Amino acid sequence: MSKENPGAIFDASNSWNGYNHQGKLAILFAIKQILEVYDKSLSVNENKHILEDYFVEIEYLEDFSIGKQNSGGEKEYFYVHQVKNHATDASSEYDSALLGLAYHVEKMPTLKKAYLHTTSDIDFKGESVHEYIKKLISLPAELNKILTRIEEVRNDEEQKKNLYSKKKGRPENFVSRLKNALVEEDDTQKRLTENNIEIALDSLEKIVRNQITAISSMSDAQISKIDLFKYDISGEVQAFCKVDQIEKLIKEEIEKSIGNIGLSELWLNNKYIHNRYLFLLGKLDEHIIERNLNYPLYMNRKKDRKIRLDTVLEWLICDNIETSDESFYQFMLKENFISYSNEFCHKCPKKQCETCLLVSAINKIGQMSFEEMSSFLTLTCPSNTKGISLETIPEYLSKRKIRDPFLRGIRDVNIPFEEDKQAITYIGRDTLQYILTTIEKDDDYEDDKDICTEIVKNKLLYELLMDYDCFISKNMNCTSILNKVQKLGDDVVLDERRKEHIAHLKDVSIITLSDFENKF
Length: 520
Fold this sequence. Notes:
alpha/beta, 2 domains, six-stranded mixed sheet, four-stranded mixed sheet, 12 strands, 10% strand
């Protein structure tokens, strides 16, 4: 919750870090708002001036919001958007989201619409969404369950301890609500503890009771503002948008902007539109990372979390995206990680989500700055000596290698990874540091010596490897990469400078994922 905006969920932008469905929807609706305001009779600069007052805001009042700063400098929200990427069509799974939207509508008369976006077609059992909401706010079972749970916890010390004890995996929804309520009460608090659990419970109870009171007397006109967004997908209107459909919608909006803003028709080719799509998401990524790096400043409102729509317009019309640098390619790789991990989760037969650290690991990757991401990529794919480019990305971190051993390792290794390390790193009982990688030996084309030689040739590793001892691979064991390479001077053409580097390269070993799991 936010003290400035009661009912606003506390910042969770590090969750999948803007690469997910939510961030892409924010970009889509930012472009839609720009095109709604844009006046073709005015110059681009004149339109920029108009758009200075409009903004998109990620993860504050709601998952994302669209609004305008009025003449008095205050924010007026026009649209709030709640995004749920659930596989289920059961309406009860969306009660909390609808109740949150109802609270916003009741508290903010400026709202034109409060939208729920889903990736599944919700089954309201023959009722309209508005009929369903009327029943929901008259008897908000979801909120009453929270009050019941609060009362149960207050009378059970073991339950209290369980709430603030550190656990592997993502926290349950109730714990997340408690943390948000605690920060609402005291924004200096970082986590739930024995000393503040009662404060968190009291704060959450107050928030929930206020919400129940606020929504209980909503009018039909207010309820009509809450809706499922209707998407036009390939000529078919539907009240949901699957994860794999959003890219097409954004690209269609980019194409529309080219004509509406009066840009060159040369920009209408598929390659350009695809690169523009990635460019926009990369810019959003930069914003989210910058927020995470400067979190205290945003929490204390010393920095503004809004993205002005004149800035998004500049992203739309920027003409230098064809000269992409490593930042652009880094973002493409982050997109790959998110896409492959989503697929991996959906197909995972284990369904041990409460203990799986995959989401935490992807969050870690998503929050990385440029320098951190560079180190992570070097350590995770140590045998790559070609650098990052559009051509090398498919080889550099392929879908197969990311899925196995990298994602499989995160799921199956039963010890937590080290949060403050540059790579996904485990410290074993032998106190050695193990890096989870995408190393996979292709038995038809390469042997251990080939991979070890490429690792030794990778100059970027020399300093990074000083803190590590062993790479985790899919199918390769090697007790010493330097011994495996043998007489490097005879096998590899190396200049004198590289020879000097090799002399200072820390010798490390390689272990298979299965052997590492059995060992620890």
